[in-house]
């Protein structure tokens, strides 16, 4: 169990999720003594939990390739093994992202018809109860047209299973909405999608601000752009929130106004609370894998667990495999090529 | 004169700038009758303005390459010619970005030692009176290590001349701050910069949220990422502002609080007002060229003019040429290669 607040946030997060999904079981992988002491505080959780003991851990500084080769008895490696062996449906970790991706890739293997697994997550938008799925969030720094087109299928399946959107709309992130603009691989991916089973759902190009306007369910980009874009959005939200706080303190009157507005501000804060959107799903593997933010708390970790639970209940991988088989992107590629 | 609110916003913007910089002169390029009527409303402006008449315009839908070849008598083309001929120091346009870039590139030509001109702009950060220059904003969708390293020199010169920062710090935008992470060209650009005249100012990699944290003066990235990142930030700011408005209306008490806070909120709004940061500079050409946002008003257009004025007063191109000659990036490249 990794992450800045582990193992407390992990165990407490599991207890929160168990209240929402009373039928789930947990296998905690890590130091038995520490975990037992933490679980003991949650009666119901203690009843349905197993522990796999290990004292080896992947650290935040471990190079992924070294972790893969040398840390075979680490909690991360053993947790992935539990999924590979069918003992668990999903691994949820707040540890080293690169190591988790590499270990999951080798431990779980990719699904048929998936050329590149990708990380997806969903975010709040300007419209209430409307979220946008963004992928890839960092698994693939550079992507081909086929990769991007495939991500559209991964993302829409995610929106269906996790967010319950029946026919999710999907766009490719670009620097303009005109057809002639943008990188070649994005323009080619657009052609692929327009000729694919997703032709009806594919709505063309989206620009950076369309991620938050609530008009599209899934936005597809390469992992470099996805990662930078998400962090820039988080940074902007943080900047405005810090400026707002300064404003509140700028005069006694505005401080009074702030007090009057506290309940409304609290509800706004809840709406964009990053903990509620915690959980990047590593999709396209023969097993479910969710990456929690390293710095999150119990509530945030619980949300990462919940994403995994929804995917498991919704039989995500079965749907994805069927979707990709029907998609048959290679045949389109060949027709064009 | 292009842009959604032209020619009014252009002429009124010039009048605002003239108050701040009484020594500047304007050449307006466009429909003489329309412009004369607008200028007549501003006495001082009327005195120092010339008009180059034309009835041909580049539209927002014109393909840049077609505009370049066919619209030689357009206001955009003639305005660039005025700079090329030495009649003006800087062209400021709110028209078609792609056409402006292509026409300026052909009309003004690149400076020696510049392999790729780039678009820069600066933005507010969490720290008061601390801005971050971001480039490239869309001129070059894909960049080599050398391009990125060169942009660092362009960006720091911009921060010196326009923002008055003596020794601007500079970072490369990446998906992690660790040395091993990221795309090859970014890692190579880091090596180049570490061995360049900017070694002291180069602070390594920045992530998306570092653009707004006020800890670095210049952030360098390719034009695709820069454009998407900026739009995602704008989208996030818009989303939060819309959510805030909803919060204010959620109860009579919060509405009262909102009224108490109005002056403070107004000052916050001013601090992140996009009009105050309007003006993307197309750097690296033998003449100054500023692109204003198409949808801006007079205040916004005036800010774009002011950026050009500051560059002209500060002898930007002379500084840039000297900096790049001293930088001698090719010699570093050869040493390594």
Question: What's the quick description here?
Answer:
The structure is a homodimer of 337-residue chains. Chain A has helices at 8-20, 32-39, 43-48, 64-70, 75-84, 97-108, 145-163, 184-194, 223-248, 252-271, 298-313, 316-327, 329-336; strands at residues 26-30, 49-53, 90-93, 118-124, 131-135, 170-173, 202-206, 218-220, 280-283, 288-291.
The biggest sheet of chain A amounts to: 8 strands, mixed
> How far apart, in Å, are the first and last alpha carbons of chain A?
47 Å
Strand composition percent of chain A: 5-15%
- What level of helicity do the residues of chain A show? 40-55%
Q: What overall form of chain A do the CA principal axes indicate?
A: globular
**CATH level-1 class of the largest domain in chain A:** Alpha Beta
Rg over CA atoms of chain A: 21 Å
Walk me through what this model shows.
Two copies of one chain form a homodimer. By secondary structure, chain A is α/β, with parallel strands linked by helices. Chain A has three domains: about 10-115 and about 275-320, 3-Layer(aba) Sandwich (Isopropylmalate Dehydrogenase); about 120-230, 3-Layer(aba) Sandwich (Rossmann fold), CATH 3.40.50.10750; about 230-270, no CATH class. Helices cover about 50% and strands about 15% of the residues of chain A. Chain A has helices at about 10-20, 30-40, 45-50, 65-70, 75-85, 95-110, 145-165, 185-195, 225-250, 250-270, 300-315, 315-325, 330-335; strands at about 25-30, 50-55, 90-95, 120-125, 130-135, 170-175, 200-205, 220, 280-285, 290. In chain A, the strands form two sheets. The first copy, chain A, has an eight-stranded mixed sheet, with helices on both faces. A two-stranded parallel ribbon of chain A has the order 1-2. In chain A, strand 9 and strand 10 (about 290) form a beta hairpin. In chain A, helix 1 (about 10-20) crosses helix 11 and helix 4 packs across helix 6 (about 95-110). The longest helix of chain A is centred in the C-terminal third of the chain and has 26 residues, at about 225-250. Chain A is globular. Chains A and B meet through helix 9 and helix 10 of A and helix 9 and helix 10 of B.
């Amino acid at each position: 169990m990794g992450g800045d607040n582990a193992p407390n946030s992990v165990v407490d997060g599991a207890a929160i999720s168990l209240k929402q999904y009373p039928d789930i079981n947990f296998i905690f992988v890590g130091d038995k003594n520490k975990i037992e002491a933490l679980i003991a505080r949650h009666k119901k959780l203690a009843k349905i939990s197993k522990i796999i003991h290990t004292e080896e851990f992947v650290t935040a500084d471990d190079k992924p390739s070294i972790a893969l080769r040398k840390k075979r008895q680490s909690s991360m490696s053993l947790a992935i093994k539990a999924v590979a062996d069918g003992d668990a449906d999903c691994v949820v970790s707040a540890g080293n992202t690169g190591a988790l991706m590499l270990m999951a890739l080798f431990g779980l293997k990719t699904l048929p018809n998936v050329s590149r697994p990708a990380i997806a997550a969903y975010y709040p938008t300007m419209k209430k109860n409307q979220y946008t799925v963004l992928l890839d969030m960092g698994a693939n720094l550079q992507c081909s047209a086929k990769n991007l087109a495939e991500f559209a299928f991964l993302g829409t399946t995610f929106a269906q299973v996790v967010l319950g959107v029946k026919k999710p709309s999907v766009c490719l992130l670009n620097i303009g909405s005109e057809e002639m603009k943008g990188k070649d691989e994005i323009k080619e991916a657009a052609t692929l999608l327009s000729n694919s089973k997703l032709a009806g759902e594919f709505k063309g190009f989206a620009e950076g601000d369309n991620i938050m306007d609530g008009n599209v369910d899934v936005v597809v980009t390469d992992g470099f752009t996805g990662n930078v874009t998400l962090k820039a959005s988080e940074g902007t939200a943080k900047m405005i929130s810090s400026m707002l706080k300064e404003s509140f303190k700028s005069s006694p009157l505005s401080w009074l106004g702030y007090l009057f507005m506290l309940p409304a501000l609290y509800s706004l804060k809840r709406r964009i609370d990053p903990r509620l959107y915690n959980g990047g799903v590593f999709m396209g593997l023969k097993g479910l894998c969710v990456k929690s933010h390293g710095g999150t708390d119990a509530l945030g970790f619980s949300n990462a667990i919940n994403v995994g639970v929804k995917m498991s209940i919704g039989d995500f991988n079965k749907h994805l495999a069927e979707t990709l088989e029907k998609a048959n992107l290679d045949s389109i590629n060949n027709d064009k090529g």
